[in-house]
Amino acid sequence: MAPTTEVPRRVEWNGKQVPVYPMQTVDFSAILSQEPAEIEKLLQCCKDEGFFYLDLNNVDGRRFIDDHQELLKLMHRFFESPLEVKNEYGLISPHLGYEPIGSRNGVLEHTRDGYEMVKVSRDEIQRESPTIPRNIKNSTDLKILENAISGNNIMSKAILAALSTAFGLTGASRFENLHRNHRPSTSTLSMMHYIPSNPAKDGNVGHQKHTDISSLTVLFTEQWGLQIRPPGTKEFGFVEPKKGQAIINVGDSLRFASGHVFQSCIHRVVPYNYEEHRYSVAYFLRAEDETMFQDSEGRYVTSRQWHDEKFMAFLASPADQANAPSSLLLGGMQEEETDVYGLPKSMPVVAAETAKNPAVEVAAVEVSA
Questions:
Q1: Name one GO molecular function term (predicted).
Q2: Is 278 a domain residue?
Q3: CA atoms of 348 and 196, how far apart (whole Å)
């Protein structure tokens, strides 16, 4: 299957005409059945672009859509709580806890990020008494979180199994055997709330460009704002949210595990409707902590080492980030020219003040989508 060649339509954003990139759609039921044509489509998506829609509008996928709707209700209750209640939870580890607005750099120069996030790891939800924010720790909420984590894990493992088959992998070399459920990992469910913001004047804007630390990311979003820069393109463009479909992207670890055959698409989040609150959920499936990969610099690193190095790089100052190797910040993916939508602008007062007084300590931030 050839890469998508459809000419993208364009929409106006921030005073410019921005493309809306088309993406392939993979059917979840067909992946479960290991149907050869669908597996081949999946393989080519990962080789050519690193992003695709996963269609869940079928008997096998609808339960995951329902689970997401219940999770959205929980998220609203959590994020509408007073800040002091959310801060009680704090950041327990890079993949568990609460991260307030302005914790790291924003999507444009001289801005801080424009979202808050609460993270619950797969390892944590399985504990007899998991560490969860008190305002969402009743038995009903715990079940909602467990269903969401379990469902996303099932979807991502089904994709891994299909890719292993497509790659001709057998036994212990199969991708899913690097992600065994009983082994420690940093796999986590990240729930994000983006505040209304205007990129022309506000100091807290979006989510900076990155590739994901994960092997696979399962993203649920019903609102515009995600932008991607597919391999070989020269500008960021939007991804259209589609009803009943998750957005899947290949992360750094699976790219490394594939021998750098798979692509890991560079992406970011911007405010599309400047007046709306945006909510999204990303499940980051990550390899077992001790899994060894060869990164884009030829180094042999464990999954946990790569995770820890990368989130520290994303916490760095803009100057330090500019000096960091792109093989770390962007997972070794190359940009062909300067991002035409990230041009310098005057520094907002809010951003300047936030930069002087960052919201969280350096030891506790993770990259998300």
A1: oxidoreductase activity
A2: yes
A3: 16
